[in-house]
Specification:
alpha+beta, Rossmann fold, about 25% strand, binds adenosine-5'-diphosphate
Length: about 475
Amino acid sequence: MANLKLEHIYKVYSSGVQAVTDFTMDIEDKEFIVFVGPSGCGKSTTLRMIAGLEEISDGNLYIDGIRVNDIQPKDRDIAMVFQNYALYPHMTVYDNMAFGLKLRKMPRAEIDARVKEAARILGLETYLQRKPKALSGGQRQRVALGRAIVREPKVFLLDEPLSNLDAKLRAQMRVEITKLHHRLATTFIYVTHDQIEAMTMGTRIVVLKDGLIQQVDAPQKLYDYPANMFVAGFIGTPRMNFFDAVLTGTKAKVYVEFEGNKILLPKTKSASIINIDEYLNTGKPVVLGVRPEDFHDEELFISNSKDTCIEVRVDAVEKLGAETLLYCVFDDGSEEVLEEGQIKSLVETKTPMIAKVDSRSTTEADQKVVLGVDILHAHLFDKETELSILEGEGTKAYVPTVELERIANGQQEDLINKNRTFFERLKYNKQKKAKAKAEAEAAVDQAKVEDVAEGENVVEEPTIEE
Ligand code: ADP
């Protein structure tokens, strides 16, 4: 149980890379916070600073009101789970989970109770005497979670823990981790680049880009009220369609004009435009954002929304079973005239868009169709700043110890190594390398066998502890 306060936190690496800029947020006890963003946006760096594995360049980090900037990782009362499970291959599941506690010199009986309880929570009771190589990827990841659970930390930090698993297992583990969070009632901070994981697991999501927080909100709020075009485009698949547009009309009747269309905005929408005078009839460019599911091709919808219909040409249709995607372009009717010898470009120059319609849709490719726009759910952004210009959109709120054990163990290993003679060390290192390689290969084979036996698709090699 813990709350965290991240206050104006910066990270500048010695290479000069500014990975995190002014990260400020309060995390309440028992929250499940997800950091999400594209690769390199600073998610892991932030998590590692919370863990104490990276130094904080500037700012303050508080856990339960205590400033921990200068507190050693092992003393921060946190546990971290990594993408690579980092299990000790020569130890059983039981010993892997017990190891960190033994290092802390915990009484044997308590270790036993904690390991058994963690195994029960994670459904690992029957695997306690197995070595990691005899486990599937999902089971190994559960052991990694178990190692974190037995420590009973104040905060769980998880760094892309599911990205080594295949899609089916990932979906299962998503649910398991969410259940685990409910059961443990502890603060979780989870890093991922996968927006589905973010949407399904987080109580709040922090969207990051280039080391800067873009928005912090509950998943549905983030989806319904994105603060800017980046968040709007990052969350949701297929992504939101963006159209260059201008606002015309009068304050009582505001139209959005785009791609040769003119759509009336409902009063509730036009009334919520911030600084409307800046945009109305001034030609100042805005961007209209429409999610694919907010286009409709059902007759009933179209006949009920005459003021908000557009005409497009359907280029391709993808039937996905539960829904159908229409890949459309705004067709201005002009035929492309090719000069002699000129080859038609494969790149579509007309504005493309995607509509997600009902699977019973009869729309086919190479058709011109009318689509109704659910304009109440549409978004408007300033083209220059890319910020939403709708009131209430994106209320800006506003963020590890298997590795810590690893560090502790690494140091231990180093000490042991120091006491060996040069030749002993050479032999030891060679043996260690050969063993690690053999174990990795064996584990992959074993996983493949289990894959068939259990219907689980285990593809990743286990990480061998150095
Ligand atoms: P993410 O987890 O979002 O993929 P990271 O936090 O790993 O991003 O990295 C953020 C930025 O910091 C990237 O530009 C990355 O190249 C840089 N970076 C990460 N670790 C280091 C390091 N140890 N030294 C220098 N730059 C680093």
